[in-house]
Amino acid sequence: MRTYGSRITLAALSTLAAATAFAAPAGATVFDQAISVQSEAHIGADGTITLSGTYRCEQPSPDGTTQVKATLVQDGVHLGISGGQAVCDGKDHQWHARGTLAYTPQVHAGPAKATAELQEIHLAGVMPSSLDTVAADEKVVEVVDHR
């Protein structure tokens, strides 16, 4: 009886491992994904901050979409900015992410860490089921204040 229970447990674990191994590539991304962030961020007279750069992506899986996300960190203050939906046609495109400093007025001229990410959002019906970062660039940028 004990051998039978061990065989069932082994079979269940083997099935789970196989399902995991074969399910992983279903959400895998295509190969030619890239994003970059420019070396300067700009604070406009209206109190908005703009980061920009370029990206390239291939069409995501049929059950998803791709977006650009940018983050700026300066003196412990984190500012996340949506760069909008990406056009994934294998060509190079410009992206611009604009956000308000209304909730982060401490952001100022000087160095800051900027991160740009190209993210695939996989959908299950109308709800997001997973989010994969398929390309990222991180560098110290100079924040230029035009106020």
Determine the number of helices (DSSP H or I, runs of at least 4 residues): 1
- Output the CATH homologous superfamily: Immunoglobulins
Mean pLDDT: 82
Which architecture does the CATH hierarchy give at level 2? Sandwich
By DSSP, the count of extended strands is 8
Chain oligomer state: single chain
Kindly identify the CATH topology.
Immunoglobulin-like
- Give the topology string: H per helix, E per strand: HEEEEEEEE
The value of Rg in angstroms is 21 Å
Uncertain regions: pLDDT < 50 for 5+ in a row?
4-30
* Name of the top-level CATH class: Mainly Beta
Which structural class is indicated by helix and strand composition? mainly beta
What general outline do the C-alpha atoms trace?
Answer: elongated
Q: Give the DSSP E fraction (strand runs of 2 or more residues).
A: over 45%
Number of domains: 1
Helical content (DSSP H or I, runs of 4+): 10-25%
Distance between the termini: 79 Å
Largest sheet: 8 strands, mixed
